[in-house]
Design a protein that fits this description.
By secondary structure, the protein is α+β, with helices and mostly antiparallel strands. About 30% of the residues lie in helices and about 20% in strands. It has two domains: about 190 residues, Fructose-1,6-Bisphosphatase, subunit A, domain 1 (Fructose-1,6-Bisphosphatase, Chain A, domain 1); about 120 residues, 3-Layer(aba) Sandwich (D-Maltodextrin-Binding Protein, domain 2). Bound molecules: 2,5-anhydro-1,6-di-O-phosphono-D-mannitol and magnesium ion (MG). Magnesium ion (MG) binds next to strand 3.
Length: about 325
């Protein structure tokens, strides 16, 4: 049997690549590693908890109130990040405002604790997306400017996919590495070192129900994909669609629509982390005219159109 390397070991081995103090990265990622495992456990028994154990009411067997999984995941990530002390504030999809820890930590985190949550009830893959920034402000409390940094300032970004297996994928700007959770030992093991995405692909992922809202250029591009007999694949969970395309080569599109004139996805905790990962893997991410990572955020829950994936496909789409 070849030597298995765990995520914890890998982080320690690569922490010299991290610009800031050795050990900080390892502490930062530990919260995500632990929370990811705990969310994974809850996701896997979601059907059980609600339909069987919870059948008599809304309380679980311990007499606790049943929590929606996205709220559970949010509370858990925040609790672990708070207790670990490196992070002084979090911006989450689940919270209107910044959650402050007032501990003087040197980092801030943005996250979507459980993305694609409409897919939980139907047993389809969902994910966690996160991004870590070095804070700019000083003092105990983080400031809005700490969160208004462009994606180029991310010091690390990653996602966890709760799929047919659970994987954690992250980058610190030195390549992209993927770890698969071995449920028998409860440990993330290195399964995909130095991930790269194919330069071109033959999968396009878009909610075609919105086709008539898309700009003529986007519509022409989608038509072109069909003329080339490409495969249409759309799960409706960003992390799952992104992960498949990253591995196989493809493009994911969520352009502006009539309902969401600025796009649906959020810049800080959906587009930016995945844009950093795709670029590190050799791909591209744009809002149609500008590089996602160079957009200057102006608000926490800012939305952006997102066109992301294999370089040749994103470039072709942009030219249209
Ligand atoms: P959410 O953050 O409310 O879960 O919404 C984000 C999700 C993405 O995971 C997914 O790619 C997209 O919304 C799907 O949207 P639609 O159902 O409009 O196609
Ligand atoms: Mg989301």
């Amino acid at each position: 049997m070849s030597q298995v390397k765990t995520l914890a070991e890998f982080i320690v081995e690569r922490q010299h690549e991290f610009t800031y103090a050795t050990g900080e990265l390892s502490q930062l990622l530990t919260s995500f590693r632990l929370a990811g495992k705990m969310v994974n456990r809850e996701v896997n028994k979601a059907g059980l908890a609600e339909d069987i154990l919870g059948a008599q009411g809304t309380e679980n067997v311990q007499g606790e109130q049943q929590q929606k999984l996205d709220v559970y995941a949010n509370d858990l990530f925040i609790r672990l990040l708070r207790s670990q002390g490196m992070v002084c504030a979090v911006a989450s999809e689940e919270n209107d405002d910044i959650v402050h820890f007032d501990n003087g930590g040197k980092y801030v985190v943005t996250m979507d604790p459980l993305d694609g949550s409409s897919n939980i009830d139907v047993n389809v893959s969902i994910g966690t997306i996160f991004s870590i920034y070095r804070r700019l402000s000083t003092g105990d409390k983080a400031a809005m400017e700490d969160f208004m940094q462009p994606g180029t300032a991310q010091v690390a970004a990653g996602y966890i996919i709760y799929g047919s297996s659970t994987m954690l994928v992250y980058t610190t700007g030195h390549g992209v590495h993927g770890f698969t959770l071995d449920p028998s030992i409860g440990t993330f093991c290195l399964s995909h070192p130095d991930m790269t995405t194919p330069a071109d692909g033959s999968i396009f992922s878009v909610n075609e129900g919105n086709l008539h809202d898309f700009s003529p250029g986007i519509q022409r591009y989608i038509d072109d994909c069909k003329k080339q007999r490409m495969s249409a694949r759309y799960i409706g969970s960003l992390v799952a669609d992104f992960h498949r395309n990253l591995m196989k080569g493809g493009i994911y599109l969520y352009p502006a629509t009539a309902k969401a004139p600025k796009g649906k996805l959020r810049l800080l905790y959906e587009a930016n982390p995945l844009a950093m990962i795709v670029e590190q893997a050799g791909g591209m991410a744009t809002d149609g005219s500008a590089r996602i990572l160079e957009l200057k955020p102006t608000e926490l829950h800012q939305r952006t159109p997102l066109l992301i994936g294999s370089k040749a496909m994103v470039e072709k789409l942009r030219s249209m």
